[in-house]
From TrEMBL:
Residues 341-399 form the PucR C-terminal helix-turn-helix domain. It comes from Kitasatospora gansuensis. It comes from the Bacteria. This is PucR family transcriptional regulator. Belongs to the CdaR family. Residues 187-292 form the CdaR GGDEF-like domain. Pfam families: GGDEF_2 (PF17853), HTH_30 (PF13556), RsbRD_N (PF14361). Residues 31-170 form the RsbT co-antagonist protein RsbRD N-terminal domain. PANTHER family: CARBOHYDRATE DIACID REGULATOR, DNA-BINDING TRANSCRIPTIONAL ACTIVATOR ADER.
Length: 411
């Protein structure tokens, strides 16, 4: 306990006595002081003017003046001051979104006005006692410091909780867009407001699945717009096995988004462009389909529009399995022969049906390619001179290589 509680300080005791002499008119004048300070704050601080109703502000200032006077007298006599109101005010203003600097400035202005009113009353009624007030000046600033510390601690705690709630809400709204339920739940207008996105615009979705050991560096906060300079703007949603970005393309093409994400240690699927937030759920589904066409062991990036045959098969696994049956006689061959024939088919398709170009790719003779092609035709009962058969075999090969055409026990 402060020594003042057990050992009388004659100077401070006299100052307390003098304040007691003017306490009646002092407290009677607090409504006028509160009215004056309210007018000044609302005129000079736009945050208060926008967020706090004048009547509420005036009542709170008057109450705080009474509390500050009681705290001053308690502190001067060595008693602990009551900080409950300061804590309550800090929490309430944080929830209203008032800047902390505005709040603390108002408290300090109130303290100065109260001290000015004390000195004016003493000077008018007891002018000779004015010097005796000086010991209380230091006490007043100690009290203001304690009050402002309590306000600050309460404000920051409440602001952190509010920010967490706001972030949770942004994440929930982002989820409704990405899962396509925004229209049904009527949440798109709120998403427009909270996420800072126009309802209509050029959007895409990217889905990233990290490779083992990938994504060691933390991303920006979820639900927060991030962007490279002059690039697309991304809103991230982080999950245990993948990361999903709602992308506001602005004037950019998906290819620019691909360049932005190409360095990631991940497999990446990118949707086509959609025209509104209501279509983002469909874009998410298409991005997931694009991601499933990534079959390599390392980083890979897939734009859906570049992989439509594979995407079609990924989206229709039953159809993919039926197509893969065309290759059943080939898949039944010994490993080396099977892969030799499949690699030749892939090279021949990639070469536009040119055996010479395929041979160059495979580092073998042109006749070797032709012999393997004939062997494939015999096994599959398909002819690579027939366009329909070419389509069937190309899709069957894609189904096999993406894995979606294999039955569960074979995949």
């Amino acid at each position: 306990m402060d020594a003042r509680a057990t050992t009388a300080d004659p100077g401070r005791s006299e100052a307390i006595r003098i304040v007691g002499l003017v306490q009646g008119p002092l407290t009677a004048g607090f409504p006028a002081v509160a009215h004056q300070l309210t007018a000044e704050i609302l005129r000079q601080d736009t945050a208060y003017a926008e967020l706090v109703p004048p009547a509420e502000l005036r009542a709170r200032i008057q109450h705080n003046l009474c509390q500050a006077l009681a705290a001053l007298l308690d502190h001067a006599q060595g008693r602990a001051i009551d900080l409950a109101d300061a804590t309550l005010t800090g929490r309430r203003r944080a929830e209203q979104g008032l800047p902390l600097a505005s709040l603390l400035h108002a408290y300090r202005r109130g303290g100065r006005l109260m001290w000015l009113r004390v000195t004016e009353l003493v000077k008018a009624d007891h002018p000779g006692a004015l010097p005796e007030l000086l010991p209380l000046a230091a006490d007043l600033w100690d009290v203001l410091d304690q009050i402002c510390d309590a306000v600050t601690e309460s404000y920051r705690s409440a602001a952190a909780a509010r920010a967490a709630r706001d972030q949770d809400r942004r994440n929930a709204l982002l989820d409704t867009l990405l899962d396509g339920s925004g229209v049904a739940t009527g949440s798109i207008p709120e998403a427009v407001s909270r996420l800072g996105l126009p309802e209509r615009g050029r959007y895409a979705v990217a889905v990233l699945r990290p490779l083992p050991g990938g994504f060691h560096q933390p991303r920006a906060g979820q639900g927060q717009l991030t962007a490279e300079q002059n690039g697309p703007r991304l809103l991230w949603r982080i999950h245990a096995d993948r990361e999903v970005a709602l992308v506001q393309l602005l004037s950019h093409e998906p290819a620019e988004l691909g360049r932005q994400l190409a360095h990631q240690p991940a497999r990446v699927g990118i949707s086509p462009v959609v025209g509104s937030l209501a279509d983002v759920g469909r874009a998410r589904w298409l991005a997931e389909i694009a991601l499933q066409t990534c079959t390599g062991d390392g980083p890979e990036l897939a734009h859906l529009d570049d992989r439509l045959p594979a995407a079609l098969l990924v989206a229709q696994p039953d159809l993919a399995q039926r197509l893969t049956r065309l290759l059943a006689p080939v898949l039944a061959l010994p490993h080396a022969e099977r892969h030799s024939l499949l690699d030749t088919l892939a090279a021949w398709l990639d070469s536009g049906g040119s055996a010479t170009t395929a041979a160059d790719r495979l580092y073998c003779h042109r006749n070797t390619v032709l012999n393997r092609i004939r062997r494939l035709e015999q096994l599959t009962h398909r002819t690579l001179g027939e366009p329909a058969h070419i389509v069937e075999l190309a899709l069957a090969l894609t189904a096999f290589r993406t894995g979606v055409g294999l039955p569960p026990e074979s995949s």
